[in-house]
Design a protein that fits this description.
Number of helices: 20
Structural class: mainly alpha
Distance between the termini: 12 Å
Largest sheet: none
Order of helices and strands: HHHHHHHHHHHHHHHHHHHH
Radius of gyration: 20 Å
Low-confidence stretches: none
Mean pLDDT: 86
Helix content: over 70%
């Protein structure tokens, strides 16, 4: 392994993660506040976010299929195109977002296009890992979460000083910097030739389970889901497991207001969760040497349910802050574990689709379910009952995830020793 090259590319991928998480805070974390500022009601906001998630469900698999099958464009070039597209959309929203209908349309497009960046960059780093360049994904993703935390606090303060329109200006700035970072995340010809490590591919033992067709690319999302049946049920479990997580994230400002908090407390709460993702993501490769990837996914799933329960019964701002500390064992552990899990059980020719389908299930289908029902539940039965229903749904999802997670054995562990 070329240690110098690995450190160089890890630092460059870190830049990508830093800016992506800054964008996640600006575009996603403060979406409700921005839309409320523009005059939308809770139900309307839920509708807008649901439409954005529905569109992302359509867009993400299409982009993934294109990336898996094209020989004309590299994955890096596709990521750069998506970043430029959203930067332009933000610019149009900033200058032309004068009516609610235009704001609705542009915000849906921006949210949907933005949702494709994360799975694409995950697939991009997997390309390098599979070439033998052991980029520490967990560390870069964890530091990215810390950037999300810092951004959340700063943006909350900046909004108080100005108004939520500043979010779009920040979005444009971060997209420009992200474009530059992705451009420099590459191998020069002489660097590619210097690679001495054998490629790190998925566990070939899964090929015998799939049969001869395992060596062929799937042409569509439907054929992918049909080919990997147990993984498809696993994805359905994720849809339900993330339901409470996304309802809480979307309506966290309302949950804080219910116990006497506001936008400042929201920023602190988001920062606590994001900060605590850093340590566990940073040490994930060490955990992978000791524990099965599949075992960590099951462990993290249980904590999604525990986090939901604590939020449900939180009587104060302090308890809501405590619930956010559980991000350490839930999202913080699940995020890197799912990336390595997919890379272990899904063959390289379907790798982008595999990574994308995780995002489609969690921040796509689950987001649609959460946003469509969350606003209605909050308006009709109140915040407590909304969270109670969400917790029950998440409990069912956790059971499905635990049941369908395939045993990865010590395969992934051995590669990193």
């Amino acid at each position: 392994m070329n240690v110098k090259l690995t450190k160089l590319l890890t630092s460059r991928f870190l830049n990508i993660q830093l800016l992506l998480n800054c964008l996640n805070s600006v575009i996603g974390g403060y979406a409700v506040i921005y839309l409320k500022f523009k005059g939308f009601t809770s139900i309307e906001i839920g509708f807008i976010l649901s439409l954005a998630a529905i569109l992302s469900i359509i867009v993400q698999p299409l982009v993934a299929s294109f990336a898996d099958n094209t020989n004309k464009f590299t994955l890096r070039q596709i990521v750069m195109f998506v970043v430029v597209l959203n930067c332009l959309l933000c610019f149009v929203l900033l200058l032309g977002g004068q009516t609610k209908s235009i704001i609705l349309l542009l915000f849906i497009l921006i949210s949907a296009v933005h949702s494709t960046i994360s799975p694409l960059t995950n697939s991009l780093v997997i390309e390098f890992i599979n070439k033998g360049i052991l980029i520490n994904y967990g560390l870069t993703r964890g530091i990215g979460s810390f950037a999300f935390a810092v951004t959340s606090i700063l943006v909350g303060t900046i909004i108080g000083m100005f108004n939520p329109n500043i979010l779009i200006i920040l979005g444009i700035l971060f997209y420009i910097l992200e474009l530059i970072s992705v451009y420099f995340f590459r191998l020069l010809p002489d660097q590619a030739k210097s690679l001495a490590s054998p490629p790190i591919m998925y566990d070939v033992s899964y090929a015998s389970k799939q049969g001869k067709d395992d060596l062929m690319k799937t042409s569509s999302t439907f054929s992918f889901l049909k080919k990997y049946k147990k993984f498809t049920v696993f994805l359905l479990g994720l849809v339900l497991m993330y339901y409470s997580y996304l309802i809480i994230n979307t309506y966290f400002i309302n949950i804080f207001e219910n116990v006497g908090g506001g936008s400042r407390e929201l920023g602190i709460g988001l920062a606590i969760a994001a900060t605590l993702e850093l340590p566990i993501m940073a040490i994930f490769t060490l955990l992978l040497r000791r524990f099965k990837c599949s075992s960590m996914i099951k462990f993290a799933a249980i904590f999604y349910l525990i986090k939901s329960l604590v939020t449900l019964f939180a009587p104060s701002i302090a308890m809501l802050y405590f619930s956010q500390t559980l991000q350490f064992f839930s999202f913080g552990l699940f995020t890197p574990a799912s990336l390595y899990y997919v890379n272990t059980i899904i063959p390289p020719q379907d790798s982008v689709k595999g990574q994308t389908m995780i995002n489609v299930a969690t921040f796509g289908l689950s987001a649609v379910l959460a946003n469509l029902t969350g606003g209605i539940l909050q308006e009709t039965v109140g915040i407590f009952n909304m969270l109670l229903i969400a917790t029950i749904v998440t409990g069912i999802g956790v059971a499905v995830v635990i049941w369908t997670t395939e045993d990865t054995g010590d395969f992934s562990n051995q590669r990193l020793k």
